[in-house]
């Protein structure tokens, strides 16, 4: 029985837990000292200065714990466009090719998603199998084209291979990468989808470096510069442009902003690993364990923009901290205070930060220094987009003095600018609910990650299981979710895939069978190339992916021809993306109790709650 | 979570409510993650006993009910269902009793156009052999007395033209005729009378809304907005004309019945019968005779005249064949209406009447030949009429009357007392011509004054004589009789003279004294055949009235007849004697079906204050006679039913009471007390 | 339709529409009888049509793989057209329960189905709140499993006890009262009308044992009490969920029969109807 009633915030007796140490778990236990030494003899490590690294994290340590050696066979797909991964690859030997054009799903071994027609849906419904988890042979493994399956074992791991490599390389524009060249570092460091596919051209040896190691390696100035330059030139402008605040900032200013911007990241990127442990903590401790980004009461020195991950905006309340909001991608922090301080008249004192920002698990931020912000950005922000208090300061007529004071009073409440939200913009200082209870609950359980979370209003749900039945009847008699999950007063957050904003399940899928649809954002599993390793299932912090052994329509289980092990597939909600209906669960609810809703914003949930008064 | 709580294992992540079976070892290590098959068999050869899920438990119920439902529908569509199953409710007890004799399976088809209760036939034609026979006709099979089949389905069982008249009449009053909502000539019985509402249900209860579907001046209740009526219940014309006002205020006070002034008591004439109903009148002898017998005896004793012989001047009389001497003198006498009626068909007479419109001989202008001829013709007509009656008896009158257009059963009653011998004697006496032959007519007349016209006459007579002679030749007995008579012309002439002289000398025949019981007689003074009637209820006079009533009021003859005092005295009190079907006694109104409004005193007189008639019926004072000419619906209906010329009659009747307004009724006729439903006072089926 | 207006607004709107519709039919019917027509045919066919519309909800629920509008929308239509049908039914019948055999069955079915539907609306709006109020949301099909777990836990609790006194005292009580409680399903009476009498009885029984127990025994009895509470709540959940599922079955089963009888009635009525 899952029980997540949020406890009151009075300090309880603390439970001693061991704060995780870095390198508790080496990336590859097989990395031997000899490998490390060999690596140190090769570029770029050879040229690195070991002294530049702190005692706690020496270069060897990084190579030993944060790296892994790969042997790739020709035609192996190393990284796929659109995949998520948290490690970069350094070419040690051999040649790989970076395919600039995006390859088709078939080429990457993904069966294309096609909406089926009504008639097909009907026939599927009629021919739905009477046994659970029944599959046709072609559904569990890719057809043998010229005798080889695209999925093959390389050493100890399964790898997916490109069919006739030459054709692909011939037709598409590619960039050859040789020894000493690094790729995939942006995706690794900034938790972004891979931007291109990389294929091993010849038999190649690669060094896979996970982002933590990468981060330390940046202490080497040359290495760091090369990385930073690459990022700043390639990515930062794009990221900044995406911000609503920066829409109207001219190019010249933007470049200067890019110059000044600092890149920071907090917490562990595999937040999902210790999530299961930390969520059990009482909220008070939980908050304390989170790395502080900006502290309440300090004077704001920079505008903080969240690039990825999640942050908790909290406020001192009595002895503890009360969560007032959570921030996600492209939310800003400290805007109001900065604006106020910039626009106030000299007599009045500057305003310190009203809340403090903490990293929930992992948080990656851009920091724009205050002066840069004031000089380059502030003039180009629409008054209506500014927080009310700052906006009021823009008008210097005494007539508005009164109203300004009103606004100041209004603003003295935890950030609550209706103007921005009503216009559908992401709230500058994060999403925030009336009830802190619900808010803390969502943050506590990282539900703010969910873009398509399934929420049930228990005050209307008659427990009729129609949602599950509907799901089953659309998915050949197999429900893709379990109608259970953590509850907070009248809301139940059901164990159905939330198609997260930060899809940790996709990290480290060996064959890229679990992939995210670029336009709908739905995360689906392509069973034919799913090797049943269970990486995704164990990675998903919400336990919304189930590994099931499959069998044919007579109920005879499939097993692997070579190993004789049963064939296991990862199954999860696919938002009924293949069937003509929307999500069948939502459509099937007779009492408006169930909804698929975006929790990364507070607006949808709040409005949905307001309806059912 | 309470301190003492201990963590229980999380429920298995297997959730398959869509399956009928659930693994028995769910959540345990041994549990197979794909569970039992659709039939609840464990794939591991029965390691565990699978459990039914809710789905599995409830499926059989749904399946069963679906089967039952389809069976029911199947039976409904195909199977013959026993009538008792589809009978929507009990019949009302009268119908139920009638049908109780028949076989149950045939009962439906008594009223319904179906032969079987099976519904499959409904998709094809209705029951065979019953096409076109609709339910209302079946109702009429038994209820044929209700209305003629032709009118059974038209509104109020009245033909549309009658309804139109009523509508026109009603436009005068405030109730506006509605645009006919339904076809008013195809109203099924079932519209108002709905069966199968249980044994106690009264089929005659009709909701007011049914009435108001056509009667558009619809109103919520009687007391406030029922249209007012002008003079109901008066002025509907009665069989007996009786003016209450004059009787109460003039006649009763003024008259003495055996010595004492009679009080004007309603109950004297209107007594309560055993059924609590108020009788309309009492017999003439009881109620009226005391005062009315004597005057009536005088007027009707005056009697009526069949035919009279006019007085002709010499030169005209001489042209007639042996015109009686006492009918010779100054022009005098007139044509009796009956004679005119009987003679109206022979052309010469009709011509003559046209020349003498006054029908009075004193107006004959001897200077003009036309007048002289007319007078002669009329005189001849009267003589020939007598002659014919004498010859052919009552038949002659009947044939002539029929020819004149009197088609009436009363004709027989009129002639039944008429003795032809009287006529024959009269002829012999006046014209001393035997009814058999007047051959003596052309035996030489001692009168020497024979001139060309008389010759012509003789020729004419001769012609007449010829065939008479032929008659003689054929019938010898005539000769014998002629032998039997003295044929000495002189003698005969002398004797006739003697007879005449004797008659004139003989004392005058006095009808009143010699014929107290009435009858036909000869008046030698007035040279006329007359009838003397008895005081009241004289059959001959009544017959005569009925005869002329057929001719209609504007016929000159009937007008003259009605003007006769004897006749007038009858019609004065019996206006409905002139009706197309004459009524001479007053009929009870209760139970009549020819009026839209019905009323029975019986329930009312039980109410204490209504026991006094005057509470509702207040006699108007003769000085202030209430007149209004507005014709209520009822009045129109009456004028249709009875004699058209009722207006004169209505001026005599209906105004001798103060109007009985609705206020008198609304006291009790509310939904709570006595009902105020339309059908309480109104009748739908009119005959 | 009615995409995001609040439920309260939606309720009032729908109720208003329904009443309007009923009055419209009433007016039509009265006008028909004014024209000496057959209002019963009008109202009857309306009711029949409504019945078919009402059954469509069941059809929709069984076709989840098509985009036919959300079931909740259909439910709203179902609820209010049900009310509408009830109103028109009252206009249609002379008496709520009819006389003839077929009609008797028909009207009885109609009334029962209508009432069960009304109860259904009431139940599905009120019972969930009571379900939510108690801890733990159990899936109906797993209730037996949960029962098993609880009784197993109780058993193991008792097995873990070291103290001899506790073993004797608690063991006796367990064998006499707790074990049958944990092992058996709740009585029909409890399922019909759940009371907390059993729970009170057992808990007080446990409390009274405390004076014979030492610390560990107290601990255990406390744990047992917690289990009793859980089991009671589980049964309570079971009872309410069963109620929520039972009425649906009754409603749908009878409505099938109702349709059948209604068709029969309509067919015969048309067959025997003549002027």
Quaternary organization: heterotrimer
Order of helices and strands of chain C: HHHHHHHHH
Principal-axis shape of chain A:
globular
Number of strands of chain C: 0
Distance between the termini of chain A: 29 Å
Greatest interface and its residue counts? B-C, 64 and 52 residues
Largest sheet of chain A: 6 strands, antiparallel
Radius of gyration of chain A: 26 Å
What does this molecule look like?
The complex is a heterotrimer of chains A (613), B (687) and C (275). Chain A is an alpha+beta fold. The two termini of chain A are 29 Å apart. The relative contact order of chain A is 0.13. Residues 1-11 and 396-429 of chain A have low confidence and may be disordered. Chain A has 22 helices and 24 strands. In chain A, the strands form seven sheets. In chain A, strands 11, 12, 13, 14, 15 and 16 form a six-stranded antiparallel sheet that branches. A four-stranded antiparallel sheet of chain A has the order 1-10-3-8. Chain A has a four-stranded antiparallel sheet with strand order 2-9-4-7, with no helix packed on it. With 687 residues, chain B is mostly helical. Chain B contains 32 helices and seven strands. In chain B, the strands form three sheets. A three-stranded antiparallel sheet of chain B has the order 5-7-6. In chain B, helix 16 (347-355) packs across helix 17 (369-392) and helix 17 (369-392) crosses helix 18 (394-403). Mean pLDDT of chain B is 75; it is low at 122-131, 436-505 and 624-654. The two termini of chain C are 44 Å apart. The chains are: A alpha+beta (613), B mainly alpha (687), C mainly alpha (275). Chains B and C meet through helix 1, helix 2 and helix 8 of B and helix 1, helix 4, helix 5 and helix 9 of C.
């Amino acid at each position: 029985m899952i029980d997540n009633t949020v406890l009151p915030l009075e300090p309880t007796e603390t439970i001693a837990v061991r704060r995780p140490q870095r390198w508790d778990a080496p990336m590859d236990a097989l990395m031997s000292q000899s490998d490390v030494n060999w690596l140190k003899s090769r570029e770029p490590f050879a040229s690195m200065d070991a002294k530049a690294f702190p005692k706690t994290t020496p270069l060897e340590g990084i190579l030993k714990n944060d790296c892994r050696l790969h042997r790739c066979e020709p035609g192996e797909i190393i990284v796929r466009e659109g995949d998520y991964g948290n490690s970069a690859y350094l070419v040690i030997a051999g040649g790989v090719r970076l395919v600039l054009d995006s390859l088709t799903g078939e080429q990457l071994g993904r069966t294309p998603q096609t909406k089926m027609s009504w008639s097909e849906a009907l026939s599927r419904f009629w021919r739905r199998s009477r046994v659970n988890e029944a599959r046709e042979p072609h559904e569990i493994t890719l057809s043998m084209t010229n005798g080889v399956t695209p999925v093959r074992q390389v050493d100890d791991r399964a790898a997916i291979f490109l069919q006739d490599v030459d054709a692909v390389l011939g037709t598409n524009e590619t960039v050859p990468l040789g020894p000493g060249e690094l790729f995939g570092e942006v995706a690794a460091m900034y938790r972004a989808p891979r931007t291109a596919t990389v294929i091993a051209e010849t038999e190649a040896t690669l060094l896979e470096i996970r982002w933590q190691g990468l981060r330390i390696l940046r202490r080497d100035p040359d290495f760091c510069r090369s990385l930073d330059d690459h990022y700043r030139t390639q990515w930062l402008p794009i990221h900044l442009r995406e911000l609503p605040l920066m829409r109207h900032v001219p190019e010249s200013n933007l470049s200067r902003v890019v110059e000044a911007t600092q890149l920071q990241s907090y917490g562990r990127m595999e937040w999902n690993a210790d999530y299961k442990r930390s969520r059990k903590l009482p909220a008070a401790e939980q908050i304390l364990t989170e790395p502080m980004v900006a502290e309440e009461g300090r004077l704001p020195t920079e505008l903080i923009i969240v690039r990825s991950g999640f942050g908790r905006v909290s406020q001192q309340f009595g002895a503890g901290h009360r969560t007032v909001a959570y921030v996600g991608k492209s939310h800003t922090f400290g805007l109001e205070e900065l604006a106020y301080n910039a626009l106030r008249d000299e007599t009045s004192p500057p305003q310190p930060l009203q809340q403090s920002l903490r990293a929930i698990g992992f948080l990656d931020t851009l920091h724009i220094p205050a002066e840069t912000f004031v000089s380059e950005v502030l003039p180009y922000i629409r008054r209506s987009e500014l927080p009310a208090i700052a906006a009021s300061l823009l008008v210097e007529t005494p007539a508005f003095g009164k109203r300004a004071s009103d606004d100041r009073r209004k603003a003295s409440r935890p950030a609550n600018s209706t103007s921005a939200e009503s216009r559908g913009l992401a709230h500058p200082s994060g999403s925030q609910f009336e009830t802190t209870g619900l808010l803390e609950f969502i943050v506590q359980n990282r539900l703010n990650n969910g873009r398509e979370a399934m929420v049930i209003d228990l005050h209307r749900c008659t427990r009729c299981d129609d949602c599950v039945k509907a799901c089953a009847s659309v998915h050949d008699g197999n429900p893709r979710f379990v109608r259970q999950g953590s509850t907070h007063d009248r809301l139940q957050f059901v164990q159905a895939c939330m198609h997260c904003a930060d899809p940790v399940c996709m990290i480290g899928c060996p064959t890229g069978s679990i992939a995210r649809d670029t336009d709908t954002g739905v995360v689906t599993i392509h069973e034919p190339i799913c090797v049943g390793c269970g990486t995704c299932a164990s990675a998903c912090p919400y336990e919304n992916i189930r590994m099931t052994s499959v069998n044919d329509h007579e109920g005879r289980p499939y097993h692997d021809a070579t190993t004789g092990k049963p064939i296991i597939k990862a199954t999860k909600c696919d938002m009924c993306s293949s069937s003509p209906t929307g999500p069948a669960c939502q459509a099937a609810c007779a009492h408006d109790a169930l909804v698929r809703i975006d929790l990364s914003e507070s607006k949808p949930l709040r409005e949905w709650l307001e309806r059912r008064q | 979570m309470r301190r003492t709580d201990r963590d229980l294992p999380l429920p298995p992540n297997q959730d398959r409510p869509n399956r009928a079976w659930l693994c028995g070892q769910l959540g345990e290590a041994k549990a197979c993650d794909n569970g039992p098959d659709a039939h609840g068999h464990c794939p591991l050869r029965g390691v565990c006993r699978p459990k039914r899920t809710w789905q599995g438990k409830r499926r059989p119920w749904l399946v069963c009910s679906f089967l039952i439902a389809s069976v029911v529908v199947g039976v409904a569509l195909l199977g013959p269902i026993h009538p008792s199953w589809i009978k929507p409710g009990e019949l009302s007890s009268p119908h139920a009793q009638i049908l109780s004799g028949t076989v149950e399976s045939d009962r439906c088809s008594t009223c319904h156009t179906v032969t079987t209760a099976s519904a499959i036939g409904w998709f094809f034609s209705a029951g065979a052999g019953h096409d076109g026979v609709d339910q209302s006709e079946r109702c009429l099979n038994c209820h044929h007395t209700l209305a003629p089949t032709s009118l059974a389905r038209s509104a109020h069982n009245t033909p549309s033209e009658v309804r139109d008249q009523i509508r026109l009449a009603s436009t005068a009053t405030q109730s506006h005729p509605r645009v006919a909502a339904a076809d008013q000539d195809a109203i099924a019985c079932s519209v108002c009378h709905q069966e199968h509402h249980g044994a106690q249900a009264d089929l005659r209860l009709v909701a007011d809304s049914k009435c108001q579907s056509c009667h558009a001046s619809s109103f919520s209740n009687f007391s406030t907005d029922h249209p007012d009526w002008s003079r109901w219940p008066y002025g509907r014309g009665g069989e007996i004309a009786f003016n209450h006002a004059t009787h109460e205020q003039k006649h009763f006070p003024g008259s003495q019945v055996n010595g004492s002034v009679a009080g004007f008591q309603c109950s004297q004439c209107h007594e309560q019968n055993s059924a609590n109903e108020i009788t309309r009148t009492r017999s003439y002898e009881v109620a009226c005779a005391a005062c009315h017998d004597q005057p009536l005896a005088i007027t009707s004793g005056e009697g009526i005249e069949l035919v009279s012989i006019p007085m002709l001047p010499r030169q005209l009389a001489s042209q007639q064949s042996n015109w009686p001497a006492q009918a010779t003198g100054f022009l005098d006498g007139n044509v009796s209406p009956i004679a005119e009626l009987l003679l109206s068909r022979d052309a010469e007479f009709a011509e003559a009447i046209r020349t003498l419109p006054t029908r009075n001989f004193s107006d004959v202008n001897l200077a003009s030949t036309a007048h002289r001829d007319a007078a002669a013709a009329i005189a001849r007509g009267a003589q020939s009429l007598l002659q014919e009656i004498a010859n052919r008896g009552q038949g002659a009158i009947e044939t002539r009357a029929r020819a004149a257009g009197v088609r009436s059963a009363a004709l027989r009653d009129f002639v039944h007392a008429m003795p032809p011998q009287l006529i024959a004697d009269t002829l012999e006496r006046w014209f001393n011509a035997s009814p058999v032959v007047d051959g003596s007519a052309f035996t030489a007349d001692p009168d020497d004054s024979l001139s060309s016209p008389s010759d012509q006459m003789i020729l004419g007579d001769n012609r007449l004589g010829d065939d008479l002679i032929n008659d003689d030749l054929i019938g010898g007995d005539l000769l014998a009789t002629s032998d039997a008579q003295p044929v000495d012309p002189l003698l005969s002439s002398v004797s006739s003279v003697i007879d005449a002289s004797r008659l004139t000398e003989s004392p005058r025949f006095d009808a009143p004294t010699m014929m107290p019981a009435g009858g036909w007689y000869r008046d030698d003074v007035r040279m006329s055949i007359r009838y003397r009637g008895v005081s009241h209820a004289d059959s001959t006079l009544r017959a005569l009235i009925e005869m002329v009533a057929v001719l209609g009021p504007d016929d000159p003859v009937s007008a003259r007849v009605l003007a006769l005092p004897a006749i007038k005295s009858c019609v004065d009190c019996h206006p409905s004697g002139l009706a197309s079907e004459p009524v001479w006694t007053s009929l009870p109104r209760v139970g009549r079906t020819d009026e839209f409004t019905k009323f029975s005193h019986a329930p009312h007189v039980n109410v204490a204050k209504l026991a006094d008639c005057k509470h509702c019926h207040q006699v108007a004072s003769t000085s202030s006679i209430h007149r209004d000419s507005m014709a209520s619906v009822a009045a129109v209906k009456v004028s249709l039913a009875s004699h058209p010329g009722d207006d004169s009659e209505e001026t005599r009747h209906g105004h001798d009471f103060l109007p009985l307004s609705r206020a008198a009724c609304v006291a009790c006729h509310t939904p709570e007390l006595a009902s105020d439903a339309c059908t309480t006072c109104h009748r739908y089926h009119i005959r | 339709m009615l995409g995001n207006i609040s439920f309260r607004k939606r309720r009032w709107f729908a109720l208003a529409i329904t009443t309007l519709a009923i009055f419209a039919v009433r007016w039509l019917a009265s006008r028909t009888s004014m024209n000496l027509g057959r209002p019963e045919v009008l109202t009857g066919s309306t009711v029949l049509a409504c019945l078919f519309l009402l059954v469509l909800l069941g059809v929709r629920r069984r076709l989840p793989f098509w985009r036919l509008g959300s079931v909740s929308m259909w439910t709203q239509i179902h609820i209010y057209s049900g009310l509408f049908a009830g109103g028109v039914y009252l206009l249609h019948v002379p008496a709520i329960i009819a006389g003839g055999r077929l009609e008797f069955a028909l009207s009885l079915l109609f009334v029962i189905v209508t009432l069960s539907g009304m109860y259904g609306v009431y139940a599905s709006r009120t019972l969930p709140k009571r379900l939510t109020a108690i801890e733990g949301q159990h899936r109906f099909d797993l209730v037996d499993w949960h029962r098993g777990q609880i009784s197993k836990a109780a058993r193991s609790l008792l097995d873990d006890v070291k103290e001899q006194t506790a073993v004797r005292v608690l063991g006796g009580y367990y064998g006499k009262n707790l074990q049958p409680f944990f092992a058996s399903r709740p009585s029909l009476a409890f399922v019909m009308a759940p009371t907390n009498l059993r729970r009170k009885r057992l808990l007080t029984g446990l409390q009274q044992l405390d004076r014979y127990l030492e610390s560990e025994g107290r601990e255990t009895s406390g744990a047992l009490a917690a289990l009793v509470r859980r089991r009671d709540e589980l049964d309570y959940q079971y009872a309410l969920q069963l109620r929520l599922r039972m009425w649906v079955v009754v409603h749908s089963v009878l409505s099938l029969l109702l349709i059948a009888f209604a068709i029969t009635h309509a067919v015969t009525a048309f067959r025997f109807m003549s002027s």
